[in-house]
Predict the structure.
Amino acid sequence: MSTISSKDLINWKEGKPVFDKIPEWTQQALPGFSGDIWAPDIIFYQGQYHIFYACNATPGKPNAAIGHATNPTLNPQNPKFKWTDHGKIVQSVLNRDLWQAIDPNVVLDDKGTPWMIFGSFWDGLKAVKMTDDMTQFKWPEEWHSIARRPSTQHLYQYELTDSQIEAAFVYKHGDYFYLFASFDMCCRGINSNYHVVVGRSKSITDRIWTKPDST
């Protein structure tokens, strides 16, 4: 998981990877994981930068997990600069789950409570309440399905032929939370039909996100 930085959002410079080696927990949780860490999400919270990242041992299947690391600064010249990995937050298991533990995004609700938004395909996107320090899901766990697409597949078929939804990002603007998500398929050259959709709601855990007004 490499880093890039810019002072003007035009000129970018590549930096060092977040991790100098694969986090040890991935080898036990995801046998066969090759070390391809991706889809990071970062948030500054309680004096630290928190990064959440996805690891998938079988691309396109729910053999995946989301990890968590923190750093007191993003300045690599600062002597306090160091990413400390805290391990796994959540894992999806083949033939048990109908969602993937990928594409994490953490957002605070109106009370300051952190929620992790994640998932893709089949049973769609999830929102789960986190502990105040963002190190794990709050117990008893509170799960919500916030978006999904219709599927004609048999249970645990895990085909990519329908129900394509992933890469959720939620942010607050005015009175509403806005949910951005990717529909359909990327990475197929001229046959790609990947596109971003948006809906809004006054609650992170709402099951109905309405189309924003054109104004």
Q: What stands out?
A: The mean pLDDT is 94.
